[in-house]
Amino acid sequence: QEVVDFERLNEHAAAFQGHDVGFCCLGTTRAKAGVDGFIRVDRDYVAQAAELARAGGCKHFVLQSSRGANPHSSFLYLRVKGEVENLVQAVGFDRCTILRPAVLLCKRQESRPMEWVTQKFLGALAWVFPTAYSVPVETVARAMVASVLQPGEGKVEVLENGAIHRLGKA
């Protein structure tokens, strides 16, 4: 494990050398980082890390994005996620897997009351519609690893929430 300063990521290029696969789950919230900080973390840092990984020999990049990602969206969050998907694909990996999970179900150390209420509601709804509106982070992690171990379906593969559930339980 290496700790890098994302504000000076180029100075840490050696940390990205010699890896066949790159996994990226980097992200923040607009509330925590502000609009500019959110864009910098969720788009710029991710794109720069992808470029460094490719330059370091990475062949397969696995990116956690978001359901509804669209570079033309009027919603900042979905627009930035769509933009970063395009930027990562443009890097030219031999294989790129993009996961688009719905609401992530997880336990956080920080307090987010509205997210907690939403997660409780979606957790209960998952009993009726298990793959429709949410996904546990553990399932996403397993799907990310499984995507590397299975042959791909083309140079770029986009896995929506249902496919994440299936692959994460395989």
Automatic annotation (TrEMBL):
Pfam families: NAD_binding_10. SUPFAM superfamilies: NAD(P)-binding Rossmann-fold domains. GO terms for molecular function: catalytic activity. It comes from the Eukaryota. Residues 4-150 form the NAD(P)-binding domain. CDD domains: CC3_like_SDR_a. PANTHER family: OXIDOREDUCTASE HTATIP2 (PTHR14097). Monomer. Forms homodimers during oxidative stress. Interacts (via N-terminus) with elongation factor EEF1A1 (via middle-region); the interaction is direct and competes with EEF1A1 binding to guanyl-nucleotide exchange factor EEF1B2, thereby inhibiting GDP for GTP exchange and reactivation of EEF1A1. Interacts with nuclear transport receptors XPO4, IPO5/RANBP5, IPO7, IPO9 and KPNB1 as well as GCN1L1/GCN1 and LRPPRC probably through their HEAT repeats. Binds NCOA5/CIA. This is Protein HTATIP2. The gene is Htatip2.
